[in-house]
Inverse folding.
């Protein structure tokens, strides 16, 4: 019989292991092989989970925050290789309208890749940081995020609740730092300080093609120090590392944030290949080339490796924190609610 | 991918969009699976069947291990449940398996209450989960899910029909757990009898409205095999952990003088089908049905029982845990009030009794006084009489003395006195 994994049993007194079995995965209705009688099929559950996930599809809600003109829409389009955000420049209105307050605009798309379906919602925040007086410009954003938690909570505590609670909670907020090259501005610090407590924040240096590599590195260093000094925990947060392996991976990421990104939805011919880039008189910046900018790292973090983790942290930590706070504070309003409830004596339960 | 699935996902404002290149979120299912691997899985099986029908042996055979089990006696006064948890691992998948066996099922003379401990156990697991879900500070992702995901109901291989105990029990359980009926010790039934038996069982279940677990048909990758398997229910199984040499292989089998029943031979019994359906194909669906259907039903009933309604959008959400607390306080306050009332009534009665007794005491006292005064009166009267008599006596004495003085000497009132006078030298 081939060597490989075994079905092993561990229980308080017993540690018998069964005979080795053929490691090929089951599922998809295939029958087990004739001679491999020790195979149970527990690992087929992975395939079952995958099938279920594919059938259900995924949801992702990304918020982009930053002053107008920093390339937020372009970056979203680059990330998802499609027009998920509409640029302001294509608006029919000749003068770019700057909103008087921060607006929250949410657009959803159904995208699909290799059989995996995702409902992607991009939440734009036009008007952020654009006014003369920007005090409290974070408030509408905070309110929006909390409103999503509230909606989820309401559905969760319903008696008749949906099979799958629709998830509109903001999973990740990408904060665009203008490439001044100096340090964080008070607006940046204030925003990130407040919002890192309720949502995963991924800060990026926008339009990074205006910085040389040295300027970029020193800028990042300064930003990291300022974040640390202000007690701002951006994603991936140190306290949520699950094990040593996690910590190792995340430490590497933490040494690189904020990612210096360049976005583009235009393709150019470079060295015989068609690549996404920005063409200037002095050269073409390749967006997906890590020697040019860190877009690829951002994409990998957000989409290819940590997407599930981002959603988990939103669900099991940020949402739970909100829920605890909310349930504790609604205590005082119970009396008015209880007036409508009949007191049933029979099965009061504790 | 069925179009209905896509339709389900779309809602207002979600436009389908095509991607110009490879984005990379197709790794999402892998990310999800990796997370599950590191967390591990939970699966809980409940086996209901009479003592000695082969529940433990079947579990051993299914999971290819030797679970700690011992034979139970047939003299249990009541049905009990015994749950044991094991950590199994196959390749990189860790499974926390809990096997719950009934002990003493079907052994009692009076089996009317036999189903109750099973129902209670299942409800208790739902209750524990509900409690955790309603807590303010909760840790659901760390929670060891003990809810019963699959219930294997072992039918005796009588060859005729279901017993009434079977029907009653399954009817009570069908809305609480996924029931998979199996015919135990199927090597005692011949093939033709088995076919008839299966048809009879299924028709009895249908006519009694028992809803057993149907393998799901909505996913087209497994719909075909599940449909076929649904037609083979209930599975006729044989369990064995002993190995017998057949041909040149060692197979799990039961050896009889007339032949060898091979457990994993699909011509001999449906064991492979059961393992396939229960573990390889539908384990995740069993878990999901338990959570989204049976648990939700329990939760809804429980909350409605408590008198909760869904709040309308204006009201703030209520922490159900908090409301339990408040209701409990209310209930205790009610109890307290009733206790106080009772105490008051008691005190009242005591007072009344006391008053009565005082009254009685007073009366007695009165009587006593009365008697005493009467006694004093009588005594006074008697004293008076005595005095009068004394007076009489005295006056009589006086008269007598006076009379004696008036008598001449010698003439005595009585001779004795004269003589005495003479003798005393008088005169």
């Amino acid at each position: 019989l081939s060597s490989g994994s075994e079905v092993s049993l561990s229980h308080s007194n017993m540690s018998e292991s069964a005979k080795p079995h053929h490691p090929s995965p089951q599922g998809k209705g295939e029958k087990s092989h004739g001679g491999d009688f020790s195979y149970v099929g527990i690992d087929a559950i992975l395939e079952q989970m995958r099938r279920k996930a594919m059938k259900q599809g995924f949801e992702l809600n990304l918020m982009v925050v930053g002053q107008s003109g920093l390339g937020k829409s372009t970056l979203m389009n680059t990330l998802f290789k499609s027009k998920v955000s509409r640029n302001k420049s294509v608006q029919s209105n000749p003068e770019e309208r700057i909103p008087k307050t921060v607006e929250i605009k949410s657009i959803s798309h159904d995208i699909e890749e290799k059989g995996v379906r995702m409902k992607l919602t991009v939440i734009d925040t036009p008007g952020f940081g654009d006014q003369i007086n920007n005090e409290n410009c974070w408030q509408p954003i905070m309110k929006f995020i909390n409103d999503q938690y509230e909606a989820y909570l309401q559905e969760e505590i319903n008696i008749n609740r949906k099979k799958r609670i629709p998830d509109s909670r903001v999973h990740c907020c990408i904060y665009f730092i203008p490439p001044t090259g100096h340090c964080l501005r008070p607006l940046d610090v204030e925003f990130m300080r407040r919002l890192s407590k309720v949502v995963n924040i991924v800060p990026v240096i926008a339009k990074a093609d205006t910085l040389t590599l040295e300027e970029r590195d020193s800028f990042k260093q300064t930003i990291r120090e300022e974040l640390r000094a202000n007690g701002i925990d951006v994603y991936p947060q140190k306290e949520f590392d699950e094990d040593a392996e996690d910590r190792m991976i995340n430490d590497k990421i933490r040494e690189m944030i904020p990612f210096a990104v360049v976005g583009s939805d235009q393709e150019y011919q470079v060295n015989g290949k068609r690549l996404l880039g920005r063409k200037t008189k002095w050269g073409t910046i390749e967006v997906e080339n890590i020697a040019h900018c860190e877009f690829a790292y951002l994409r990998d973090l957000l989409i290819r490796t940590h997407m599930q983790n981002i959603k988990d942290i939103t669900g099991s930590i940020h949402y739970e924190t909100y829920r605890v706070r909310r349930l504790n504070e609604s205590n005082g309003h119970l009396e008015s609610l209880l007036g409508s409830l009949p007191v049933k004596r029979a099965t009061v339960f504790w | 991918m069925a179009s209905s699935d896509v339709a389900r996902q779309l809602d207002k404002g979600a436009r389908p969009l095509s991607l110009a290149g490879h984005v990379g979120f197709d790794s999402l299912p892998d990310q999800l699976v990796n997370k599950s691997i590191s967390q591990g899985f939970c699966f809980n099986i409940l086996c209901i069947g009479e003592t000695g029908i082969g529940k433990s042996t079947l579990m051993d055979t299914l999971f290819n291990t030797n679970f700690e089990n011992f034979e139970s006696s047939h003299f249990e006064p009541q049905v009990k449940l015994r749950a044991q948890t094991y950590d199994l691992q196959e390749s990189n998948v860790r499974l926390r398996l809990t096997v719950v066996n009934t002990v003493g099922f079907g052994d009692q003379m009076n089996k009317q209450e036999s189903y109750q401990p099973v129902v209670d156990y299942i409800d208790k697991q739902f209750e524990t989960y509900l409690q955790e879900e309603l807590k303010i500070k909760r840790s659901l992702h760390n929670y060891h899910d003990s809810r019963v995901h699959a219930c294997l109901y072992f039918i005796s291989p009588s060859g005729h029909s279901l017993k009434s105990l079977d029907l009653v029990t399954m009817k009570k359980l069908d809305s609480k757990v996924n029931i998979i009926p199996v015919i135990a010790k199927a090597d005692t039934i011949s093939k033709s009898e088995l076919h008839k038996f299966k048809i009879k069982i299924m028709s009895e279940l249908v006519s009694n409205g028992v809803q057993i677990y149907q393998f799901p048909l909505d996913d087209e990758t497994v719909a075909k095999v599940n449909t076929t398997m649904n037609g083979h229910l209930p599975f006729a199984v044989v369990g064995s952990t002993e190995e017998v040499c057949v041909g040149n292989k060692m197979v799990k089998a039961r050896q009889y003088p007339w032949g060898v029943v091979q457990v994993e031979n699909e011509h001999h019994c449906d064991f492979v089908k059961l393992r396939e359906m229960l573990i390889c194909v539908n384990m995740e669906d069993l878990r999901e049905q338990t959570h989204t259907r049976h648990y939700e039903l329990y939760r809804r009933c429980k909350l409605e029982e408590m008198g909760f309604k869904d709040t309308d959008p204006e009201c703030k959400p209520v922490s159900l845990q908090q409301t339990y607390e408040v209701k409990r306080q209310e209930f205790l306050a009610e109890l307290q009030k009733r206790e106080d009332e009772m105490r008051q009534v008691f005190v009242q009665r005591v007072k009344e009794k006391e008053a009565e007794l005082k009254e009685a005491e007073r009366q007695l006292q009165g009587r006593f006084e009365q008697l005493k005064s009467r006694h004093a009166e009588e005594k006074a009267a008697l004293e008076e009489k005595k005095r009068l008599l004394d007076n009489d006596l005295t006056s009589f004495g006086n008269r007598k003395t006076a009379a004696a003085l008036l008598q001449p000497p010698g003439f005595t009132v009585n001779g004795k006195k004269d003589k005495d006078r003479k003798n005393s030298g008088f005169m």
In short: Chain B touches chain A through 107 residues (CB under 8 Å). Chain B has eleven helices and ten strands. The beta strands of chain B are 14-16, 41-48, 80-90, 93-103, 150-155, 179-183, 235-236, 243-246, 249-256, 259-262. The first strand of chain B starts at residue 14 and ends at 16.
